[in-house]
Design a protein that fits this description.
single chain, 274 residues, Glycerol uptake facilitator protein, transmembrane
Length: 274
């Protein structure tokens, strides 16, 4: 029990985020935008992030993104041995959430698609679950898109717990992170859907593979699936080093902490990281 209690909440954590976001995507897609629009999906994912952070922050650090977990391993704030269990829990949560969304919206999906589950075309439904690039995007540009988005996410997260640089109160970190996610998804979704999270993309993609969409979910767009799997971790680490080089190393030496001091980065991890 002691070994798994740090990892198992991440399954529910990521399930919560995906359930909010993918349900909104299903509602918008199958209603042909008569019951929501682009903003609806972005806001739903952000509310999911905030809800999940409040849900589990008293149990363990709220790592729902392998890219962020990897970055904190690089910082030495998370043990490397926990990275794989964290990632597997995050992946499982995303898969389970996708299955729940499929069950809830099964009739709507079948009515919209005519029973033909496809990745391409005006009646495609695969994008309800995983992310796919726009027709004009190349693999290289898509990779850059994901690196930049995840780098921004990590850069902003690290600022929240730095007591030498206007830190955020612990109880406000979940809504602040949600707003950060909302900003990134609203400004960087046009090209590739702003996955910025390998588990958020791979879990639903694996579900669609097993639920009837077939291998096309992996082979489409020149095997694009590896981009949201590889680029976000690289972007997260790059954002981490940008923070260290351009911000943290220029801050004054920390004063002796007192009881009223704000959270340090390591304390932030334990309570409320994305």
């Amino acid at each position: 029990h002691a070994h798994y209690k740090g990892e198992t909440p991440y399954c529910l954590f990521n399930c919560c985020v995906q359930l909010f976001g993918c349900s909104a995507a299903a509602q918008v897609k199958t209603s042909r935008e008569t019951k929501g629009q682009f903003l609806s999906v972005n806001m739903a994912f952000s509310v999911g992030v905030m809800s999940a952070m409040y849900l589990t922050k008293g149990i363990t650090g709220a790592h729902l993104n392998p890219a962020v977990s990897l970055s904190f391993c690089v910082l030495g704030q998370v043990q490397w041995g926990r990275l794989v269990p964290y990632c597997l829990s995050q992946l499982l949560g995303a898969y389970v959430a996708s299955a729940l969304v499929y069950l809830v919206y099964y009739d709507a999906i079948m009515d919209f698609s005519g029973g033909d589950l496809t990745v391409y075309g005006p009646n495609e439904t695969a994008s309800i679950f995983a992310t796919y690039p726009s027709e004009y995007m190349t693999l290289g540009r898509s990779f850059l898109d994901q690196v930049v988005g995840t780098g921004m996410l990590m850069l902003c997260i690290l600022c929240l717990g730095e007591k030498r640089n206007t830190p955020a109160p612990a109880e406000l970190i979940p809504p602040i992170v949600a707003v950060i996610v909302l900003g990134i998804s609203m400004s960087m979704s046009g090209n590739c859907g702003a996955a910025i999270n390998p588990a958020r993309d791979l879990g639903p993609r694996l579900f669609t593979l097993t639920a009837g969409w077939g291998t096309e979910v992996f082979t489409c767009y020149d095997y694009w699936f590896w981009v949201p799997l590889v680029a976000p971790p690289i972007g997260g680490v790059m954002g981490t080093f940008m923070y260290l080089i351009f911000i943290e190393w220029h801050l004054p030496d920390p004063d002796q902490p007192d009881n009223d001091s704000a959270l340090s980065i390591s304390e932030t991890i334990k309570q409320s990281t994305l």
